[in-house]
Amino acid sequence: MKVLVDTNILLDVLAERFPFYACSAKIWTLAELGRIEAFVSSISFNNVYYIVRKAADKRRARQALRLMRDIFVPVATDARIISQAIDSDIDDFEDAVQLYSAASIQADCIITRNVKDFIVRKESFTVLAPDEFLVIYAEKYPDKKRRKNEFT
Question: How far apart are the C-alpha atoms of 147 and 31, rounded to whole Å?
């Protein structure tokens, strides 16, 4: 299963943001174990660096980027993605870049805590909250559910 992970999911794990941490950490673990093909928009690196540096320091921000780099595949933000995002009906430019990054790699879905922000008239794409994704994943791969209590 090929997914694009939104920046807020990454930050939930890196900053241990509760109550969101548990579901986001399970998704991170699925990516780390190679059970899902997990991509992130290249702009997520900028966003994570900025937020972690402000909340902690440069050292922790670089450490966060290394973790991301080692687990997630970055999707290059090219001129086409930027143009699509600018011309889209999505109010938040960053969310539009995420959506078109996912479309460019033909992802099965985007995983985000801001599902409603991706709902627009012209673009249709599967956008799931972390808990919704985990339910679908467990149904699609029931044998994986029992391994190491990944979903309990």
Answer: 15
